[in-house]
Amino acid sequence: MNSPLIKIDDKHLPLYRIVWVSDVPHFCGEEDCLHEGEYEVRLDIDDSVWANRSERDHVIHALNGWYGDNSEPEKGDWQ
Ligand SMILES: [Zn+2]
Questions:
Q1: What is the structure's pLDDT at 52?
Q2: From ligand 1's centre to the CA of 69, what distance in Å?
Q3: What's the 77 CA to ligand 1 centre distance in angstroms?
Q4: What spacing in Å lies between the alpha carbon of 63 and ligand 1's midpoint?
Q5: H or E element in which residue 33 lies
Q6: How many domains does the chain contain in total?
Q7: In degrees, to the nearest 5, what angle opens at C-alpha 44 toward C-alphas 39 and 50?
Q8: 72 C-alpha vs ligand 1 centroid, how far in Å?
Q9: Whole-prediction pTM
Q10: How far is ligand 1, taken at its centre, from the CA of residue 9, in Å?
């Protein structure tokens, strides 16, 4: 069964709250930036969480599955 939740960093998030996922690592040039090299996962209520690359890829995969993109079927999840 496909879970509607995904774990990013230390948080379990419902997939429906995700608005977009960054394609490239964050860079803003701030010296004290805590998120350089991480991938921003934007949430609906003016909030973001931060993922490393493999977490980011996992988020996109989960979103594709959740929205019913069958081009990359989850093995054993649906049927
Ligand atoms: Zn930054």
A1: 93
A2: 32
A3: 36
A4: 25
A5: none
A6: 1
A7: 20
A8: 33
A9: 0.66
A10: 17
pLDDT of residue 77: 56
DSSP code at position 17: G
Per-block mean pLDDT, blocks of 10 residues, the chain (79 long) = 80 90 94 94 89 92 79 56
Tokens at 74, concatenated: 């989850």
Q: Is 39 a member of any domain?
A: yes
DSSP summary character for residue 74 = P
Q: Would residue 79 count as lying in a domain?
A: no
Give alpha helix (H) positions in 1-79.
53-66
**CATH number of the domain to which 9 belongs:** 2.40.50
Sheet holding 47-51, edge to edge: 18-21, 39-43, 47-51
Beta partners for residue 51, in sequence order: 39
Looking at residue 4, its pLDDT comes to 85
* Residue 13, beta-bridge partner list: 6
Range of the domain at 12: 5-66
